[in-house]
Structures are given as structure tokens and as C-alpha cells.
């Protein structure tokens, strides 16, 4: 009887082991390399990089998967020296072909390090603010109380994974996400140019950067790992370095409006501008193309855009577009414990510090900022003609982003 039980147990264990080996093989063939590499780990400071197998308590299946994947892939624990040397090379300036990048340009002036910014203390403060408000039961907003398991897969599409360096980046549109995606492509070697991985982020064409097939994101795990997908997500969230960049919510809205409605964008004109012009400006028989509309002086106003955001019918039709969707809905900061919180307002310093912490600063530099970047000082002018009641409603709509990421309440815009 005992021998029969042992035999059945052996068969089960061998079957599980074979399934996991198939999963690992599938991942190695289907993507680049699957590295369980270094990461930050609580409660250490942002300056300390983990070096060992410092796993926290995990469910049995997660722990088994973690150990198996770690032991199976130890041989791939570093980037080849030749690749590292090649990544440093590359052209100094890009050939800019995208309309938005042509209009805004790049700021190629040198930026001196600001020694007054104590980056480590800054990170501790930003993370403390986020954790305190996530734990504060009196501060509520939609989806706050969800667990990670409650987040549907389609809402995890902004979490980009680099298995080569053990990095997870949650991208937020209008917060330098194009260039951070370029950095992730270089690090993960997920895109080739004539058979060779890109080495300079600015060499990567914008259309490839925003192609969803270019990046490995959490929402793709289900197709790849099936019922093991959530287990593997949790392992990577425990082990990998997780970061995001945020921005003053109202300034981000201005930036989104400028790039999507002040420049000719066919897709956004048809999907959003035409309905806005009909609903809020009483236009009929609108041109079918954005060039014709712009030629006739038919453009969405900032007031139209704000009305669209506040209109309860908007989200009944579809969730906010990612360019103006709230950060808490894109990156789930109360469900995911981010190791690094960058801000666009301190982009150059934060980016340089993060690349150092990731130990990839010898491989690449973060691309330069835009010359004509939307500034916080523009808020008063942009909102001057927006009724006070609308501004107050808009603040409530984006309040969670203001509070979680430490942006002061714009009192000057919310009072007479």
C-alpha cells in the first residue's frame, strides 16, 4: 500500500516538474532570456540592491516555481561583456520623424547633477506618502480596496517586464513613457535592427516603441503560462525592481490635450474630437479627416475636453483613454509595492539615479527631455476660462493621483 502511494506521489511530482520545465522552455524560446535577477526588497532603502535569494513568505506553489526557475536559470545571471560594450555605443542624436517630436524637439543642453537633491531620502519620502494613504481607511477612491488577484488581466497591460535585468516598469502616458519604453527595449533586447538589438534608445522609431507586440506585459502572461500566470506575476513582483514615473495630474491633462488635439492626429480626431465637437460645440456635418477640420478651423477646445472628462456618459461608453486615465487605474499603486517613484518634474535627476540603482548606467543614458515640455506654471492660464465648478469636479476626479504621489492641492484653481 505504501509503495503504491509513493508511486502515485512520484508520478504527480514528475508531471508537475515536466510542466514547469515546458513553461520555462516556452518562455526562453518565445522571448529573450528569463532572468530572476537582482531587485530591491523591503524594508531596505532604495540605495540597497538585493543580492541573494531573499524570498519573503510565498504560497507553496509560488515558492516551488520561484526556486525551480531560479535554479534552472542561474547560468544566465549576467549580460555578456561584449553586449555590454556594444550597448554603450550608438548615434548621439536621433533622426526625428514623428510630428510631435518634430514640434517639441529635444533639449540637448547638458544637465548638471543637483547635489542638493538627496535622492535616497526623496524616494523614502515618496514611498512613505504612498503607503500611508493606501493604508488610510478614511481616504477612499475606486478600486483602492481590491487585492492584486482582483485586478483583471486587461488592466495589467501597462506593466512592462524586463527579465534580463529583473525590472518591471508601469508606463504612464504623458510622463516620458516613450523614452522609458525605449530604455526597456534596449535593456530587454526585445527589438532587433537588422538582426542586432538596439543599443541607443533614440534610434528606436516611435511607431515601434508604442507597438504592443514589442513589450512583454503582465496581461500577456495568461496566454503564455495559463493558470500559473498569477503565481509568476507575484514572484516577479516580489523579486524584481518595480518603478513608475508620475506627473502633476492637471499638467498631465494639459499635455495630453496639446499632443492629441492641437496636433493633427487622425485617430484621436475620429475617436474623440468628432464626438466632442458635436456634443459640446454643437457642430454638425464635420469633416471626416483631421486635416480638413484643422483647415476649416474646427478644433476641440480645452473647455470641450474638460466637459468630456466630467460627462458621466463618457465612461459609460468606455474607460478613459490611457492618456488621461488616472495613474491609480493604470499602475495600481495600492496593490503593487513600487520600489522607485520618479517624477517628471525631477526627471533628469530621478532617471540618472534609477539607472545607477539598476546597475545599467554603463549601458545607456536616459534620452534628453523635450525642449517644449508642458510646464506647471501654465496651469493658471489653461484653466482661466474653465468654470470654478468644473475645476472642483475635475480635482475630485483626479484627487487620488494628487494625494498618493504627494502633489499639493491646487488651491488657487479651486477657489474664487
- Number of separate strands: 6
The percent range for helix content is 40-55%
* Integer average pLDDT: 82
**Silhouette:** globular
Strand order of the largest sheet: 1-2-5-6
Poorly predicted spans: 24-59, 71-97, 108-116
Strand content: 5-15%
State the end-to-end CA separation: 83 Å
Radius of gyration: 23 Å
**How many helices in DSSP terms?**
19
Give the biggest sheet.
Answer: 4 strands, mixed
Give the class from helix and strand content and strand pairing: mainly alpha
The ordered string of helix (H) and strand (E) elements is HHHHHEEHEEHHHEHHHHHHEHHHH
Give an overview of the whole structure:
The chain has 416 residues and is mostly helical. It has a domain of 192 residues. Helix content is 47%, strand content 5%. It is built from 19 helices and 6 strands. Helix 2 packs across helix 9. The radius of gyration is 23 Å and the shape is globular. About 17% of the residues have low confidence. This is Carbohydrate sulfotransferase. It is found in: Golgi apparatus membrane. It is a single-pass type II membrane protein.
Lay out the secondary structure.
Blueprint: H1 2-30, H2 60-72, H3 81-88, H4 99-104, H5 119-135, E1 159-162, E2 167-170, H6 177-188, E3 192-193, E4 196-197, H7 206-209, H8 221-225, H9 229-239, E5 241-246, H10 249-261, H11 266-280, H12 290-295, H13 302-310, H14 312-317, H15 327-331, E6 340-343, H16 347-357, H17 379-383, H18 388-404, H19 411-414
Parallel strand pairs: 2-5, 5-6
Antiparallel strand pairs: 1-2, 3-4
Enzyme class: transferase
Organism: Polioptila caerulea (Blue-grey gnatcatcher)
EC number: 2.8.2.-
Amino acid at each position: 500500500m505504501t509503495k503504491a502511494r509513493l508511486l502515485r506521489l512520484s508520478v504527480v511530482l514528475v508531471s508537475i516538474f515536466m510542466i514547469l520545465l515546458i513553461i520555462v522552455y516556452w518562455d526562453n524560446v518565445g522571448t529573450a532570456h528569463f532572468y530572476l535577477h537582482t531587485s530591491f526588497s523591503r524594508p531596505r532603502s532604495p540605495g540597497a540592491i538585493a543580492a541573494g535569494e531573499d524570498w519573503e513568505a510565498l504560497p507553496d506553489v509560488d515558492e516551488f516555481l520561484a526556486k525551480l526557475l531560479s535554479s534552472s536559470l542561474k547560468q544566465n545571471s549576467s549580460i555578456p561583456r561584449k553586449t555590454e560594450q556594444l550597448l554603450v555605443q550608438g548615434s548621439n542624436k536621433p533622426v526625428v520623424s514623428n510630428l510631435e517630436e518634430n514640434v517639441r524637439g529635444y533639449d540637448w543642453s547638458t544637465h548638471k547633477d543637483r547635489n542638493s537633491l538627496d535622492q535616497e531620502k526623496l524616494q523614502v519620502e515618496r514611498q512613505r506618502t504612498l503607503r500611508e494613504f493606501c493604508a488610510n481607511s478614511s481616504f477612499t477612491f475606486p478600486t483602492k480596496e481590491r487585492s492584486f488577484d482582483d485586478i483583471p488581466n486587461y488592466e495589467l497591460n501597462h506593466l512592462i517586464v524586463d527579465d534580463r535585468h529583473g525590472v518591471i516598469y508601469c508606463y504612464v502616458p504623458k510622463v516620458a513613457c516613450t523614452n522609458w519604453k525605449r530604455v526597456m527595449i534596449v535593456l530587454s533586447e526585445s527589438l532587433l535592427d537588422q538582426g542586432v538589438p538596439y543599443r541607443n534608445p533614440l534610434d528606436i522609431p516611435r511607431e515601434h516603441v508604442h507597438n504592443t507586440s514589442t513589450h512583454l506585459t503582465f496581461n500577456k502572461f495568461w496566454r503564455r503560462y495559463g493558470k500559473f500566470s498569477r503565481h509568476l506575476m507575484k514572484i516577479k513582483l516580489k523579486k524584481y525592481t518595480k518603478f513608475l514615473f508620475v506627473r502633476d495630474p492637471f499638467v498631465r491633462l494639459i499635455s495630453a490635450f496639446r499632443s492629441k488635439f492641437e496636433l493633427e492626429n487622425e485617430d484621436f480626431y475620429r475617436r474623440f474630437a468628432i464626438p466632442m465637437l458635436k456634443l459640446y460645440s454643437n457642430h454638425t456635418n464635420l469633416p471626416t479627416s483631421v486635416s480638413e477640420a484643422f483647415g476649416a478651423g474646427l478644433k476641440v477646445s480645452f473647455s470641450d475636453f474638460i466637459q468630456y472628462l466630467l460627462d458621466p456618459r463618457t465612461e459609460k461608453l468606455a474607460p478613459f483613454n490611457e492618456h488621461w486615465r488616472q495613474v491609480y487605474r493604470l499602475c495600481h499603486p495600492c496593490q503593487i509595492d513600487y520600489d522607485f517613484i520618479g517624477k517628471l518634474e525631477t526627471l533628469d535627476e530621478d532617471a540618472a539615479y534609477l539607472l545607477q540603482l539598476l546597475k545599467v548606467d554603463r549601458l545607456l543614458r536616459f534620452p534628453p527631455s523635450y525642449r517644449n515640455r508642458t510646464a506647471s506654471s501654465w496651469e493658471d492660464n489653461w484653466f482661466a476660462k474653465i468654470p470654478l465648478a468644473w475645476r472642483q469636479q475635475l480635482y475630485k476626479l483626479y484627487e487620488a493621483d494628487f494625494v498618493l504621489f504627494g502633489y499639493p492641492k491646487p488651491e488657487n484653481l479651486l477657489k474664487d
